[in-house]
Amino acid sequence: LRLGPQGTEEKDPLVGFSLTRVRSGNVPSYSTRNPHDCPLQKNSSNLLVLFLINTKDLRVQVRKYGEQKKLFISPGLLPEVPSEPVTPKVDSGTTAAFDKAKLKPTVSQGDQQGLSGKDKELVLGLGHLNNSYNFSFHVVIGSRAEEGQYNLNFHNCYNSKPGREQPFDITVMIREKNPEGFLSAAEIPLFKLYMVMSAFFLAAGIFWVSVLCKNP
């Protein structure tokens, strides 16, 4: 992530990411959203994870909202596929999910918070070189109830304030791992799919020809 010069008088970070779950049947509405509102400064009763990038203290604060019993977020990239699926150990029982953002390993963990959706506050380390920043994390989903489609959105709230726009250049690398399913069409084994479809059409053709032969 490359950012232009930023002011230091801001109390809350104005740059970051949000991770939200898209429930089936929900159509997001952008017309009702105030363009001057900053999504990083709001909370939610639904599943929401905010990654607040603090370029002054070189850290990324992770805030969780909503019920997340089996959604685990950990610093660094997910290790290569283990022999058996491993669920991270966490005191309060949160789980993990898919893999996000190429950036740097991180380290610290924050204070315990209440049960209003924010289990533990995680703090990720933020790498810095000139005006470029990077960090990495991975998400693991540990229950079927929390599986589904997730959106990872980038927010630059400086651009929501007239006259304070800040240019940025961002590169995100995402690695999907889902051993028992397919997260995208590109992962479907096409050879098996084609064979099954060919067999189906062959059977349908034979059936149709047999029907025609019986009814001259």
User: What is the helix fraction of residues, given as a range?
Assistant: 10-25%
Number of helices: 1
Q: Tell me the structural class.
A: alpha+beta
Number of strands: 13
Q: Output the radius of gyration.
A: 23 Å
Assess the beta-strand content as a share of residues: 25-35%
Oligomer: single chain
Strands ordered across the widest β-sheet: 7-8-4-3-2-12
Mean pLDDT figure: 71
End-to-end Cα distance: 71 Å
What are the secondary-structure elements, in order, as H or E? EEEEEEEEEEEEEH
Low-confidence stretches: 88-119
Global geometry: elongated
Organism: Neovison vison (American mink)
GO cellular component, one term: membrane
Keywords: Membrane, Transmembrane, Transmembrane helix
Transmembrane segments: 193-213
Q: What do you see in this structure?
A:
With 216 residues, the chain is an alpha+beta fold. The protein folds into two domains: 2-183, no CATH class; 184-216. The chain is 12% helix and 29% strand. The protein is built from one helix and 13 strands; from the N terminus they run E-E-E-E-E-E-E-E-E-E-E-E-E-H. It has one helix spanning 190-214; strands at 2-3, 15-22, 48-54, 59-65, 71-75, 99-100, 109-112, 120-125, 127-129, 132-134, 137-141, 149-156, 168-169. Strands 7-8-4-3-2-12 form a six-stranded antiparallel sheet, with no helix packed on it. Strands 5-11-6 form a three-stranded antiparallel sheet, with no helix packed on it. Strand 9 (127-129) and strand 10 (132-134) form a beta hairpin. It is elongated, with a radius of gyration of 23 Å. It starts with a strand and ends with a helix. Residues 88-119 have low confidence and may be disordered. Keywords: Membrane, Transmembrane, Transmembrane helix. This is Protein GPR108. The chain crosses the membrane at residues 193-213. InterPro entries: GPR107/GPR108-like.
